[in-house]
Amino acid sequence: MFNKLFGKKEVKKEETLIAPLTGKIVNIEEVPDPTFAQKMMGDGIAIEPTEGVVVSPVDGEIVQFFHTKHAIGIQSEAGAEILIHVGLETVSMNGEGFEGHVNVGDKVKAGDKLLSFDLELIKEKAASTVTPIVITNGDAVESLDKRAASEATKGETSLLQVKMK
Predict the structure, then answer these.
(1) What is the DSSP letter of 6?
(2) What does the UniProt entry say about where the protein is found (predicted)?
(3) Which of 67, 70, 85, 101 is catalytic?
(4) Which region holds residue 116: left if phi is over 0, alpha if psi is between -120 and 50, else beta?
(5) 41-75: string of b/e by CB count within 10 Å (b at 16+)?
(6) Is 152 helix (H, G, I), strand (E, B) or coil?
(7) How far apart are CA 67 and CA 65, in angstroms?
(8) Which of 11, 43, 85, 156 has the lowest tally of Cβ within 10 angstroms?
(9) What is the pLDDT of residues 14-58, one digit of tens each?
(10) Which residues contact residue 21 at a Cβ distance below 8 angstroms, ignoring those fewer than 6 apart?
């Protein structure tokens, strides 16, 4: 009753994450980096990109954007904290080949362009192009359903269904 009187909006508890990149879907356990493969950062999925553009997988807010532009954190409207980490060992590139299109605090909609990167440069300078997409606040997640597709199209393919506690 008070929520209606004072206009507090209902927080959604469930949402679908769409693919932030175009490419081949990889199980998180198959990521060639133990930090991600063993889910130390959280559970999720990964994509081996075929193009260098990252879009938002959800409606939410940019809560972290590493100065090296290789990783970005988004908090979804339902409260999921999502980390998109472009490639493996890309932090050592010190931002070379990466261009940010958003800033911390920006509100984004699913499909909004977040960053772009030089895929060929990453192939040359980093350990891998595989890009993990993980939910870092797993303790707040009730369930995480992974969609069974082999290819992802950025802004279109449904990747994960997240239900928050």
Answers:
(1) H
(2) Cytoplasm
(3) 85
(4) beta
(5) bbbbbbbbbeebbbbbbbbbbbeebbeebbbbbbb
(6) strand
(7) 6
(8) 11
(9) 999 999 999 999 999 999 999 999 999 999 999 999 999 999 999
(10) 47, 49, 51, 53, 54, 55, 131, 152, 154
Contact of 164 with 141, CB cutoff 8 Å? yes
Contact 83, 73 (CB under 8 A): yes
- The SS3 call for residue 156 is coil
Q: On the CB side of 4, how many CA atoms lie within 13 Å of its CA? A: 1
Q: What is the largest CA-CA distance in the chain?
A: 59
Bigger pLDDT: 4 vs 23 = 23
Under a CB-based contact definition with an 8 Å cutoff, are residues 50 and 23 in contact?
Answer: yes
Residue 128: DSSP 8-state = B
Note if 85 is an active site residue: yes
Query: What 3-state class would DSSP assign to 121?
Result: helix
What whole-number distance in Å separates Cα of residue 116 and Cα of residue 147? 25
pLDDT, mean of residues 46-73: 97
The structure's pTM equals 0.93
